[in-house]
Design a protein that fits this description.
The complex is a heterodimer of chains A (86) and B (193).
Chain A (H helix, E strand, L loop, with lengths): L15 H6 L2 H22 L2 H19 L4 H8 L8
Chain B lengths: L2 E4 L2 E3 L6 H16 L2 E4 L1 H6 L8 E6 L4 H13 L2 E3 L5 H9 L5 E5 L6 E6 L3 H8 L2 E5 L2 E5 L2 H12 L2 H14 L3 H5 L2 H6 L4
Parallel strand pairs in B: 2-8, 4-7
Antiparallel strand pairs in B: 1-2, 3-4, 5-6, 6-7, 8-9
Helix pairs in contact in B: 1-3, 6-7
The chains are: A mainly alpha (86), B alpha+beta (193).
Chain lengths: 86, 193
């Protein structure tokens, strides 16, 4: 559970004039940067066990779905050559 | 909390992900045969970045054909295979002659995999010699110096993903901008920028 009140976060709030000058891409990038800073602060205020358990939910679920690829499919996906023997 | 035990050693009490367990297992084998250093995205992920990767990048010191043979046999004996080729000769040639990366994964899988390259020049060699040790619950890993990693992502790679990784690492380790900027001339010298 995030302890929001304990976190020193970057202030993302933009007034409407500022917002109107930014493209969707720029707003999206600012939001992403805000989250990175938020997460770094969260990590600093919580034990390694607490933050890593949350991070592992993401990592383990992505790896589970990605493990279906064969060697050949994977190398094709990466644009790399593979041996005729593989 | 992450703790510096000395200037070259960090203790990290995180719960290990499936990716971390894969990395620890394969690094324990590779580390018996040669010096290695983990670089790039996995370093940021290992230290908490909220993303993942299917491949982990590693530099190893150039080793002889005989040393490579022993390493490859050890990896095979412990349940790993190479993704790019099955032949030991072909794999060694890719590493040494073609300067390509070779990938190792658990047998029967392609993902996750360890992308292994020989160090190519002095800059890569610096990454290897300046590595730091991270002590986890289930073993040790050697990762690239954090300031160098941040600088490489910020000045050389420069994709959105790399810039975000750099921001994360810089925030986590409180690295000053001046420290990062010092690497610029080194990157220029070795043709990275």
């Amino acid at each position: 559970m995030l302890k929001t009140k304990q976190l020193k976060t970057t202030n993302l709030s933009l007034n409407s004039m500022e917002e109107s000058k930014l493209s969707f891409k720029e707003i999206n990038q600012r939001e992403r940067e805000w989250f990175i800073d938020y997460w770094v602060n969260y990590m600093k205020l919580h034990s390694d066990k607490e933050w890593s358990e949350q991070q592992n939910v993401l990592i383990n679920s992505v790896l589970k779905t990605a493990t279906q690829l064969s060697r050949k499919e994977y190398l094709q996906f990466k644009g790399e050559k593979f041996s005729k023997n593989v | 909390m992450m703790e510096w035990l000395d200037t070259k050693t960090i203790k990290l009490d995180k719960e290990l992900s499936d990716l971390d367990i894969f990395v620890l297992k394969i690094c324990a084998i590779i580390g018996k045969h040669c010096n290695y250093v983990l670089i790039s995205g996995y370093v940021a992920i290992f230290f908490g970045r909220t993303r993942t990767t299917e491949d982990v990048d590693m530099f190893i010191e150039p080793i002889s054909k005989e040393q490579f043979s022993a390493l490859y046999k050890d990896l095979q004996a412990q349940g790993f295979w190479a993704i790019n080729a099955n032949s030991e000769e072909e794999l060694f040639s890719m590493l040494k002659e073609d300067k390509l990366a070779i990938r190792f994964a658990e047998r029967g899988r392609a993902v996750p995999n360890m992308e292994v390259k020989f160090v190519r020049d002095l800059l890569d060699a610096i990454a290897l010699s300046d590595k730091i040790k991270v002590v986890t619950k289930k073993g040790e890993l050697y990762v690239s110096s954090i300031p160098m990693q941040i600088a490489y992502k910020k000045y050389v790679l420069q994709t959105s993903k790399d810039l975000e990784d750099a921001r994360h690492l810089q925030g986590m380790f409180n690295v000053k901008d001046e420290t990062i900027k010092n690497y610029k001339s080194l990157f220029k010298q070795y043709g990275r920028i």
